[in-house]
Amino acid sequence: MLTMHIFERFCVASCLLVVANCLMFRLPANSRRCLKEEVHKGVLVSGEYDLSDAPGQKTDLMFTDTKGHILVSRENIDKGKFAFVTDDYDVFEACFISKSPAGQRGQDRDVVLTLKHGVEAKSYDSIAEVGKLKPLEVELQKLEDLSESIVKDFAYMRQRESEMRDTNESTNSRVLYFSIFSMCCLLGLATWQVLYLRRFFKAKKLIE
Prior knowledge:
Elements: H1 2-17, E1 21-27, E2 32-39, E3 44-51, E4 58-64, E5 70-74, E6 79-85, E7 90-99, E8 109-117, H2 124-131, H3 135-203
Antiparallel strand pairs: 1-8, 2-7, 3-6, 3-8, 4-5, 4-7
C-alpha cells in the first residue's frame, strides 16, 4: 500500500510537470500573426487550432523553421490538428495568415492554439491500445518517457554550459592578447613620439 501511495504521488507530480501551451489571440482581417517556439531535436510536436467563424474569409496556417523549411501548411482553416517531428534543435514559427476577398470588409477572428511537444504530445491511449497495455503499464511508460525527457534536458543544459564556458575562456584569452597588443602599440607610439620630438628640437637647435 505504501509503495502504491508513493507511486500515485509521483504520477501526480509528473502530470503537473506536463502542461500544454494553450494560447488565445485575435487575428485582424488581412494580417499575419506569428508565434515562436523553441524545441529540441527529434521531438514530436502536435497541436490543435480552432478559429471563430468569419464567412467568406480565409485563414492559412504555416509552420516553418529558421532555415525557411515548411513543416506544416494548411489552407482555409477553421478547426483541425497537426503534428511533426523536429529534425534539429531550432526555433519554429507558427504563422496565421488572414485573407479577405476583394471588396469585402473583413472581420477579426479569435484563434485558440494548443501546442504540445515531447512527452505531452504522445497519444498514450493509442499506445495502450496497440500494445494492449494495462493502465499501470501506461503510467509507467509515461514516467519512463518523462524521465528520458528530463535527462535529455539536463544533458543539453550541460552541453550549453560547457559551450558557454569555452566561449568565456576564449573571450578572456582574446581580451588578454588584445590588451597586451594595445600596450605594445602605445609604448611603441610613445617611443616614436619622443624620438621624433627630439629630432625636431635638435633640427631647430633648441636642444643639444
